[in-house]
Amino acid sequence: MKKEFTCIVCPMSCHLTVYNDGDKIVVEGNTCKRGKVFGENEFTNPKRMLTTTVRIEGSHLKRLAVISSDEIPKNKMFECVNELYKVTVKAPISRGNIIFHNICSTGVDIIASRSVKKL
C-alpha cells in the first residue's frame, strides 16, 4: 500500500510518498530527518495536538482555551472532543493547570492554555 502526504513539520512542506517494502517502511521525498519520522508516523499511527475550549464558570469568559499535553491519535480526536464538551471548570484557573487527566485513556492530559481570574 502506497500513501502520499504533505509534511507539516517544517516550512518546506515536502511531498512524501510512503509505502511498505517487506516489513520496512520507506519514506521518499523528505528533505530532512524529521520528515522521515513524520511520514512513518502518518503511515502507521497519525497523531495531532488537540486544541479546543471548555466551559468555565465564575469568570468574565464563557469558554477556556485548552490544549493537549502531547499528540493524540487522530482516530481518538472526536471521542476526546466529546468528552471535553461535558467538562465545566470553575475560575480561577492558572495557565498549565490540568483540566482533564488521561483523556480517553490516551495517557495525554488536557491543560489550560491561559490564566483566568475569578469574578
TrEMBL record:
<dbReference type="Pfam" id="PF07892">
    <property type="entry name" value="DUF1667"/>
</dbReference>
<dbReference type="InterPro" id="IPR036593">
    <property type="entry name" value="CPE0013-like_sf"/>
</dbReference>
<protein>
    <submittedName>
        <fullName>NAD(FAD)-dependent dehydrogenase</fullName>
    </submittedName>
</protein>
<dbReference type="InterPro" id="IPR012460">
    <property type="entry name" value="DUF1667"/>
</dbReference>
